[in-house]
Amino acid sequence: MTPAAPATTPAPPAGLRATARIGAVRDGRGGTALPLLAGEGPLALRRTRDEGAEAGVMLVGAMSAPLGGDHLTVEADAGPGARLAMRSAAATLALPGRGGEPARYDVRLSLAEDAQVRWLPEQLVSVRGSDLRVRTRAELAPTARLMLREEQVLGRTGEAPGTLRARLTVIRGGRPLLDQELSCGPGAPGGWDGPAGIAGHRALGQLLVVDPRFDADPPAARVLGEFAAVTPLAGPAVLVTALAPDALRLRELLDEAARAYGW
Fold it and tell me: What cellular-component terms does GO give this entry (predicted)?
């Protein structure tokens, strides 16, 4: 009889796993409380000064991440009537890892009735040799309001970009409002950097505003500049997309849109 082979222990997953969790609820005094504020590893959370009824949270990078093979997740749950503003303290650098595995960065937002969330992180920089998959998913009740900004910078100064795949999905009242995907860098479909893609620009971004007030007064489609456009969506929402030569100009374009459609 041949002896049985010894049991083997599965190898642990490569890379770092970390999740930041935020829970926001009305505090009964006209403000917003944060009963859940928990970060792990490189995802440290700090409460900032409130602005009226809106609670503020800053995401602070406690170490270099994401590296190849890392999986980072940010989860925020805004209860009925809660007001929450989420920002990051600095740009996020997607860096290559040792084993060549892609990194993942997930953002999950949940907004109950009459909740309001602003997710306004700093830029994501796709460093040469990196491979990052970003997935952002927001689920909103019909009366919730959301402002969401995404900014990507393709490579540092004088550097080719890494591979970046970003998907944004928004569900409102159980129905899809927006589902789109962006691919840039090595391995992306051909033409991503051509005239039908980003046309050689190094910075790209978007601002999404979902607001029930748009049902009665929908925004009009318009152009903000040569490479920036406002697109009303099939719902009470507007999407601003922009291309720019650098991060500074990109932020100027999106800030202009935020002032026009924000609250």
Answer: cytoplasm
Within a domain: residue 216? no
Residues 90-116 pLDDT 10s: 999 999 987 778 999 999 999 999 999
- Residue 22 forms part of a structural domain: yes
In 68-102, beta strands by DSSP E: 71-78, 83-88, 92-94
In a domain, 2, yes or no: no
Mean per-residue pLDDT, 17-35:
95
Q: Is 61 helix (H, G, I), strand (E, B) or coil?
A: strand
* Torsion sign, CA atoms 196, 198, 200, 201: positive
Per-residue pLDDT, averaged over 54-82, amounts to 91
- In a domain? residue 108: yes
**Mean of the per-residue pLDDT values for the chain?**
91
| Beta strands at 203-210 and 237-244: parallel, antiparallel or unpaired | antiparallel
Q: Which amino acid is at 81?
A: G
Q: What is the pTM of this model?
A: 0.90
The number of distinct structural domains making up the chain is: 1
> CA gyration radius for the chain?
20
Tokens standing for 141? 């009740």
The parent domain of residue 142 ranges over 17-208
> Which tokens belong to 95?
């860096």
At 220, list the tokens. Answer: 């009009």
Q: How many whole angstroms separate alpha carbon 73 and alpha carbon 40? A: 10
For residue 190, give Cα distances in angstroms to 88, 161, 185, 194, 227: 32, 15, 10, 9, 21
Rounded to whole angstroms, how far apart are CA atoms 163 and 155?
A: 10
66 preceded by a cis bond (ω within 30 of 0):
yes
